[in-house]
């Protein structure tokens, strides 16, 4: 009790300036913490904007490479002179090389389950791709069922339920990349089919393709 009374008297006798100093220091610490938190919030927005921009550049690189490749292998190349074809191929190769000099990489943070799901989904796609030449039409339908499992739109055909459950277990960024890969594969497959049709039935197929477009 005596110690308590001594402590109380000590507080009563403490200069008001010291109490005000403590109050001001507490207020200053709170303001500083708030400012730092606001700065971090702003930096987080910029970090996400940076990742989005880098992802967009990745997609642009993929698109450019695909377009250059399609030009190199398009049917129009067969309908020009050898000299013109050689010049165009050299230009396309130069553009391809310059595009490949651009290195953009956005790493996706994954937990062990997401990593395993990504590997599983990749294996399933690779299995279909490796067997495309054995049964083009059958495995095209298989690719479409895989793609249907990745899209939020109502699919035009059946979807692969097993593949869908695997993709759901992937990180969001990986889900988008898986969908883009399947879209690219289906586009390339469609272009290949058009090329085959042109080789087998040049006149009728050209007319048919023009009507469809």
Describe the structure.
The structure is a single chain. With 213 residues, the chain is mostly helical. It has two domains: 71 residues; 87 residues, Methane Monooxygenase Hydroxylase, Chain G, domain 1. It is built from eight helices and no strands. The termini are far apart. The N terminus and C terminus are likely disordered.
Features:
disordered N terminus, disordered C terminus, Methane Monooxygenase Hydroxylase, Chain G, domain 1, 213 residues
Give me the secondary-structure topology:
Elements: H1 2-12, H2 16-72, H3 82-100, H4 112-130, H5 136-148, H6 161-168, H7 172-200, H8 202-212
Helix pairs in contact: 2-3, 4-6, 5-7, 7-8
Radius of gyration: 31 Å
Q: Low-confidence parts, pLDDT < 50 over ≥5 residues?
A: 1-12, 198-213
Structural class: mainly alpha
Q: Roughly what is the average pLDDT, rounded to an integer? A: 80
Number of DSSP strand runs: 0
Gross morphology: flat
Name the beta content range.
Answer: under 5%
CATH topology grouping of the largest domain: Methane Monooxygenase Hydroxylase, Chain G, domain 1
Number of domains: 2
Which sequence of SSEs, written as H and E, runs from N to C? HHHHHHHH
Put simply, the count of helices is 8
Overall CATH class of the largest domain: Mainly Alpha
Keywords: Coiled coil
Coiled coil: 33-67
Organism: Gopherus evgoodei (Goodes thornscrub tortoise)
Domain BAG: 117-197
Short account of what is shown:
The chain has 213 residues and is mainly alpha-helical.
């Amino acid at each position: 009790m005596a110690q308590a009374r001594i402590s109380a008297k000590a507080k009563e006798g403490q200069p008001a300036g010291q109490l005000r100093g403590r109050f001001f220091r507490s207020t200053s610490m709170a303001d500083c913490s708030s400012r730092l938190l606001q700065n971090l919030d702003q930096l987080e927005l910029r970090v996400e904007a940076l990742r989005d921009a880098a992802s967009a550049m990745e997609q642009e690189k993929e698109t450019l490479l695909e377009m250059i490749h399609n030009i190199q292998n398009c049917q129009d190349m067969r309908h020009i002179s050898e000299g013109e074809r050689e010049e165009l191929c050299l230009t396309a190769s130069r553009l391809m090389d310059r595009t490949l000099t651009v290195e953009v990489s956005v790493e996706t943070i994954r937990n062990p389950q997401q990593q395993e799901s990504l590997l599983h989904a990749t294996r399933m796609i690779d299995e279909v791709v490796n067997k495309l030449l054995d049964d083009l039409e059958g495995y095209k339908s298989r690719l479409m069922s895989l793609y249907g499992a990745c899209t939020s739109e109502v699919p035009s055909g059946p979807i692969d339920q097993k593949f869908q459950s695997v993709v759901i277990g992937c990180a969001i960024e990986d889900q988008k990349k898986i969908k883009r890969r399947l879209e690219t594969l289906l586009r390339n497959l469609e272009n290949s089919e058009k090329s085959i049709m042109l080789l087998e039935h040049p006149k009728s197929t050209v007319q048919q393709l023009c009507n469809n477009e």
